[in-house]
Amino acid sequence: MSDSVPQTLTLIRPDDWHLHLRDGDTLGAVVADTARQFQRAIVMPNLRPPVTTTEQALEYRERILDAVAQAGLPDTSFTPLMTLYLTDNTSPDELRMAHGTGVVHAVKLYPAGATTNSDAGVTDLLGRCRPALEALQELGMPLLVHGEVTDPQVDIFDREAVFIDRVMIPLRKDFPELKVVFEHLTTRDGVQYVRDAEGPIAATITAHHLLYNRNAIFQGGLRPHWYCLPVLKREIHRQALIEAATSDSPRFFLGTDSAPHARDLKEHACGCAGCYTALHAMELYATAFERAGRLDRLEAFASLNGPAFYGLPTNTGTLTLERQPLTIPESLPMGGDATLVPLAAGETLQWRVAAPSNV
Ligand SMILES: NC(=O)N[C@@H](CC(=O)O)C(=O)O
Ligand SMILES: [Zn+2]
Ligand SMILES: [Zn+2]
């Protein structure tokens, strides 16, 4: 007989270093999914209008905490880690004020036009944002990067690799001490860059980019719930991401990029980009790590590497997963009449989150 497979897996309570909670009814509908699994989450600022000021970030934080309190969870200790949305006009003073609050932990770069709600994003990073970048470097505040060029001449599958050459390398040459997180990494090129680059750099990796390659978008027909940005890539890239996430490099950590969009806007002639994974995030990651034979590496990826990079303490509680079938619901309420389709709806996973413990 082979070694017996583990039936439970207890980890230091994990954090989600890349999350979209939205606002209003959607926030109320989704926040409990994250708070059940994760102790903390870096909350993305791409609302409409975007979260560009400290004041907006503090108000948004209150709305998140209210939504957690109203969700009726046994444990309401979930902590949102706020971010600001970088624009061409973000001032160093605004960044100093944000940093001084102690609750705004990072600033997000969306190249204008690159993804959902990025219209107010940056048009020319090194041309327009030098004072802001200098302030971030000085404050030790991470710049979180949606790393895709928006040049329509560049093939959509190459936008991350081209971003490394055109933006990432020049940025980090000019600001070598700037802490940078390459968000939702999707390519072998990105993995090699983050693994080997000098200076403070790290990357988040989603569960869907670990589990699927681009065939998933087209399997048996066009499947909009597998469409996200950066788009799923070839199998060689997925394998590189698995190697990175399960390696002993502390530069790779968990960021779900769970991105709720209403079903009718996903199943649409011009469907929105984003996969909803907050409901079953740790189950999806455990599935990916187990398939790679590296469940032993999940805790570093999910619970240790992120706080180390951000300079935050490791959580003290735990989260336990059990080997129990979990059938992913076909649809979830999203507030009002809207519904939400979680990634891999209707499929069954072999892991299930049991209960968090904050002891
Ligand atoms: N990942 C996505 O496909 N969508 C995200 C935006 C983002 O993270 O780029 C969203 O806000 O919907
Ligand atoms: Zn993004
Ligand atoms: Zn995102």
Characterization of this structure:
- InterPro entries: Amidohydro-rel, DHOdimr, Dihydroorotase_CS, Metal_Hydrolase.
- Substrate binds at residues 20-22, 46, 146, 229, 261, 273.
- The modification N6-carboxylysine is found at residue 108.
- Catalyzes the reversible cyclization of carbamoyl aspartate to dihydroorotate.
- The active site is at residue 257.
- There is one protein chain.
- An eight-stranded parallel beta sheet has the order 2-3-4-5-6-7-8-9. Strands 1-10-15 form a three-stranded antiparallel beta sheet, covered by helices on one side. A two-stranded antiparallel sheet has the order 11-14.
- The longest helix has 17 residues, at 54-70.
- The two termini are 37 Å apart.
- Helices cover 36% and strands 16% of the residues.
- The chain is globular and about 55 Å long.
- Strand 3 (40-43), helix 2 and strand 4 form a beta-alpha-beta unit.
- It is an alpha/beta fold.
- It has helices at residues 24-37, 54-70, 92-101, 125-128, 130-139, 159-174, 188-196, 207-211, 215-218, 235-245, 263-266, 281-291, 298-310; strands spanning 8-12, 16-19, 40-43, 79-85, 104-109, 143-145, 180-182, 201-205, 252-254, 318-322, 326-327, 332-333, 339-340, 348-349, 352-357.
- It has 13 helices and 15 strands.
- N-carbamoyl-L-aspartate is lined by residues 20, 46, 115-116, 146, 228-229, 257, 259, 273-274.
